[in-house]
Amino acid sequence: MDYNIIIYIIFGILPSLTWLSYYLRKDTHPEPKKMILMIFFWGALATLPVFFVQIGLKFILDQINISPLVHELIYWFLIIALSEEFFKYLIIRAKVINSPHLDEPLDVMLYMVIAALGFAALENILYLFAPEGQMSFNQLISRTLIVDFIRFIGATFLHTLCSAVVGYSLAISFCEVKIKNISLALGIFTAMTLHGLYDFSIITLEGNIKFIIPVAIILTLAFLVFSGFEKLKKMKSICKLN
Known about the structure:
9 helices
């Protein structure tokens, strides 16, 4: 195997494993390792259908005669952000909700984060790939470390935070049956909106605002998520999840 590929795989997974270690320490009742690995794997696998869905929807979007701004907004918010958040949610809906390992509200949020980290891991690996022979070994390592660090504090962290918001809303939907659908819809909408705005800002905008908005989004999401973790920890004996 080419050493380039080995480096891409190791450094592509490393940000996700680092965040995974952090999030797992916040769970006072550790989840089974087999279950964690399975959800991580399914999260990584989800990048493939998402990729083809995004290509197909972008092809359709490109055929529509609309203004460049509207085109960009639809692309980043609906095609990219919504598809990624929805597929990560589907993994938890299909693989976790009826699992006997799901025994407290915090688990829902945690498994959403694990799925997101799997998704981000494969995304990072694919993002690191560059044409063979283009760089020396030192250049390869330097570029990989820089990209890895940027995605560690940016894209990978964003994935975990957005999925955690959806996970929190899903957990609340089990606990507050009267607002079940509203809670879940609000969680997905919030994750989609902030995810889309993050991507739209760093790719489309210029000047200081290109950095101010993403930083503000990360900080806002971090506050919401860590507040959510603390709230769900106090709801252990209240909610019947299954």
